[in-house]
Amino acid sequence: MAMTFAPELLTQVTLALIKAVGQFSGPFFLGRIIRAVELSNNGLVLSNPNIRRAYFDAFALFFCTLLSSLLENYARWVGNHMGVRFKGILVAELSTKTLSRSKNSSSNSKRGPNPKDDTSSTDGKIMNLMTADFERLAKLSIYLDQMYSYSFTLAI
Hints:
Blueprint: H1 6-22, H2 25-39, H3 49-109, H4 119-142, H5 144-155
């Protein structure tokens, strides 16, 4: 399973690392803007190099915030794609197991009725319960990038 989802997991880890570094762009550029405005003595004149630097920093702040948002959405898309594939694999395995169990129980019923073996009702219940659990696991993979991102943010 790990090799099946290795590219997606690697993509999510990479995006989470970039996002974690990008989270600090806001305070960094805001601090530079404030310093540039404080250093400008003659007001907000565009010829002042400090004010030009402040405008550049404001644009960089906007660009970094936009990039962070795009990367977060892409990481969630990758997680959603991975979750759908994961759920499909698990449902296919469960269906195969249930069908083989039903086949084995039908061959046993030819020998004689077994009152303890009521597979017709339990197979449907098992499929229903397990599919709901698979849906929860699929939703977990969507937000897996946040776990990486918060870990990287704490490390930085």
